[in-house]
Amino acid sequence: MSKEDLLERMEKAIVEGNKEEAERLAKEALEEKMDLNEVIEKGYVSGIQKVGDLWEKGEYFLPELITSAESMKAAMSVLQPEMEKAQIASKSPGKVIIGSVEGDIHDIGKNLVASMLSANGFDVIDLGADVKLEKFVEKAEEENADFICLSALLTTTMLGQKKVIDILKEKNLSDRFTVLVGGAPVNQKWADDIGADGYAENAMTAVKTAKEFIEK
Ligand code: B12
Fold first, then answer.
1. Does one domain contain both 111 and 205?
2. pLDDT single digits (tens) 75-118
């Protein structure tokens, strides 16, 4: 099967919420030694984006969203360990605390950012989803982290990103940690408005942005 055919089938498996197929194709990608960044972005992420479009058009409802998200997770559970194994850097460029903010259970994008950072040698502590805002700050202090990465997929939970930054200000910790924000509704303007140090649109640019801060 050609690379394009495989990527198309991956996308289709997510759109149709076919978990077994999504997982099987991920294993095939490993056997075929495909570029995993391409597999994720052009196959699976492209599929979940289509699911988002169908939901917006009112053609998909919550059950479809859930089966598609589960299929995405099944594929990622095959790919993530391999990506992390492939990491080349021996010395970690920095320590990252990452999570989806309180009230937000979306974690597919956050997991992608976490694995991409990890695959690039960063030491990543993933607090999961629906993380209490104070916990980000507590963990960052406890672990002496360099970055706090906050993911939010809902316009309501985006405010949690601002609150974490406010907590850091109150505790005079703003200079100690670099705060990166992201998630579908987040943009550079929001990041600037709330005083975040950086914003990235996707997992690849998140790694690039984090590396730029380390170099500074
Ligand atoms: C899958 C999905 C779900 C799944 C989540 C499963 C899971 N485990 O994650 C389920 C079904 C559970 C779900 C639930 C809900 N969802 Co939903 N969901 C989606 C959907 C279709 C895709 C999200 C996704 O995974 N995208 C793929 C990933 C790869 O992209 P991403 O998350 O954007 O992440 C990338 C970047 O943003 C960036 N990034 C992400 N985080 C970070 C962090 C940092 C620091 C950086 C630098 C970068 C970064 O890098 C990532 C990788 O490239 C979106 C549609 C959309 N357009 O986003 C709706 C969407 C986010 N959901 C929505 C809604 C309304 C809900 C519900 C409220 C529905 C309901 N009525 O119950 C609940 C909310 C529950 C809660 N409290 O959180 C709305 C939000 C509307 C809004 N503006 O607030 C959306 C936009 C759909 C819509 N158009 O209406 N959802």
1. yes
2. 999 998 888 776 654 467 899 999 999 999 999 999 989 988 88
Domain count within the chain: 2
Name the closest-CA residue to atom 7, ligand 1: 106
Q: Are 103 and 156 in contact (CB under 8 A)?
A: yes
Which residue among 85, 120, 139 closes a domain?
A: 85
Q: Is 54 in the pocket of ligand 1 (CB under 6 A)?
A: no
Q: Which residue, of 45, 65, 85, is where some domain finishes?
A: 85
Q: How many Cβ atoms from other residues are within 10 Å of residue 154's Cβ?
A: 17
For the CA of 184, the nearest atom of ligand 1: 33
CATH of residue 58 = 1.10.1240.10
Per residue in 19-49, pLDDT tens?
Answer: 999 999 999 999 999 998 899 989 998 998 8
Same domain, 117 and 202: yes
The alpha carbon of 10 and the centre of ligand 1 are apart by a number of angstroms equal to 19
Measured from the CB, is residue 145 less than 6 Å from ligand 1?
no
Rounded CA separation 50/10 (Å): 12
The CA distance from 32 to 36, in Å, is 10
For residue 81, give its domain range: 3-85
| Single pTM value for the model | 0.88
Q: Please give the residue that has the higher pLDDT: either 84 or 54.
A: 54
Residue whose CA is at the smallest distance from ligand 1 atom 75: 105
The answer, yes or no, to whether residue 169 has pLDDT greater than 90, is yes
Residues with Cβ within 8 Å of 60's Cβ and at least 6 positions away in sequence, in order, are: 51, 54, 68
In a domain, 100, yes or no: yes
